[in-house]
Amino acid sequence: MTLPARTARALAVLVLVFGAIAAWNTAPTPASAAEPLQSLVPVPVSVQPAAGVTHTITADTRIHTSPAAHGVGDQLAALLRPSTGYALPVADTTGVPADGITLLIGGAPASVGDQGYQLTVTSAAVRLRANTPAGLFAGVQTLRQLLPAEVESRTARPGPWTVPGATITDHPRFAHRGAMLDVARHFHPVATVKRYIDQLALYKVNYLHLHLTDDQGWRIVIDSWPRLTAHGGSTQVGGGPGGYYTKAQYQEIVAYAAARHITVVPEVDLPGHTNAALASYAELNCNGVAPALRTDIAVGYSSLCVSKDVTYTFVEDVIREIAALTPGPYFHIGGDEANATTDQEYRTFMDRVLPLVGKYGKKPLGWHEFVKTTTDTGAVAQYWGTTTSNAVVRNAAARGQKVLMSPANKAYLDMKYHSGTPLGLSWAGFIEVQGAYDWNPGTHVDGVPESAVLGVEAPLWTETVVTPAHVDFMAFPRLPAIAELAWSPWSTHDWDAFRLRLAAQAPRWTALGIDFYRSPQIPWTATTPTTTTTTTTPSGTWTPNHAYTVGNQVTYNGVTYQCRQSHTSQPGWEPPTTPALWQRL
Predict the structure, then answer these.
(1) Tens of pLDDT along 193-210?
(2) Total count of domains within the chain
(3) Does residue 188 sit in the same domain as residue 161?
(4) DSSP string of 226-261, one letter each residue
(5) Global pTM value
(6) What confidence tier does 581 reach under pLDDT thresholds 50, 70, 90?
(7) How many helices (H) and strands (E) are present in the chain, helices listed first?
(8) Which of 337, 369, 457, 574 is catalytic?
(9) Same domain, 274 and 256
(10) How far apart are CA 64 and CA 45, in angstroms?
(11) HSE-up of 42 (CA within 13 Å, CB side)?
(12) Across the strands, what pairs with 381?
């Protein structure tokens, strides 16, 4: 980037975000960056501070809502009550009260659209307006970040609960702001998924893509093919019991996400990545022989039998049953790494499968390879490549198809931060926080203009991710970086400013119990806890906060394990739950 371009971007930040009173490009200290209006992630379109003005939430504060906003008002009250200890009653209003917190549907500027909001804070009142409940919910997340980090506590804290005076007008750059959680490689129970949904909501993510099936496990009950979960869901990477969601549990996840204005996108990866299905039903194999279940992380070897009619009966049953449980517009059909099918077989398969998606009321979304088989402009290509040129995606955009940006070397949250990261893979390279932030989804792929980009998604594959603490470590702080790319205008994009705002998020994560990666690229404040490590090479009984190298042997609960990757151990990374780090002997 040239110096004039950098200067122009800095000026855009000043005009759009802070008017004439703040300049992030002057590299303020972490302490000054912690001022709430200068610490928002994602950064809003426009912030007009009111100098010397604050609003304090007290025991007498009431939350007023227009009838259509009552549900969001209840969510705001539920967030604030535990930490403040205040009653914060929620009541409908037909006017605009002069005090308290008021949430209104209607009256927002037309520019905020159906996902944006306008937030006005005076000494007397907080007023939040939007055109839809989704926009109002997004505004609540901004209000939440304007309060002290202790507001996230689930127990009463002393306060005071002050909000800086300002008018914030905001709306997203892209309509689709997604995150993916792979529950197939390692199964993640309902509670873990809900926890992740809550984390996504804080950063205005509005789509959760669930990777429900793969070679190592099938994680959703299909009534017409019960062995998919009974057998195909019985293990996972590295062994272990695996698991799956009943239909009721899946619907519970969908409803929990919807209450936070997040739409679930189910994925059944086809025709490859299907060993769990092939192991469950011999008839889905061309030779009629069911293979063994797999617990390794190899890819590209499996395929449904394209020439058999039973294959399409199976696929239709799966699409029909999952679509009936999923109110969102998309069904993700995978389509990647189908190395065990010929190009003609792949086209034959997609020609029969894509109409089935439409038959059950969904739009097809898939990894970008699949759009070489269709000219349907409603089909969305999710780009996961590592280059900035791709003919399949370029041609799809030229036809009018939308592209969801997830370049693996920028947006994959399962990539290691650096060579010493104890979790993750590195086939797409290492992705530190700056690498996750410094790319432009609207210009990243040649021939795919911003008008063709549906949005951005950050996938988290789980070959090495077993526990909620692992999810935290890999997603934070990169998830907020990707979320800002999806929400904020490109004119506000500036790494030096972002790293300071990101640092100011750390106390909030700590209050939420998020065990994040302390990147050396971020100037974390002195209050941010750090992980204690040693420089020794221990052996013997496994303990946390020790440096282990490849070949070290330890015992844990009477079982011996050998270190596979050099790392510093942490609670939640015990040998039985971290097969990427430890091999049982």
Answers:
(1) 999 999 999 999 999 999
(2) 3
(3) no
(4) THHHHTTTS--TTSS----B-HHHHHHHHHHHHHTT
(5) 0.88
(6) confident
(7) 17, 23
(8) 337
(9) yes
(10) 26
(11) 33
(12) 366, 403
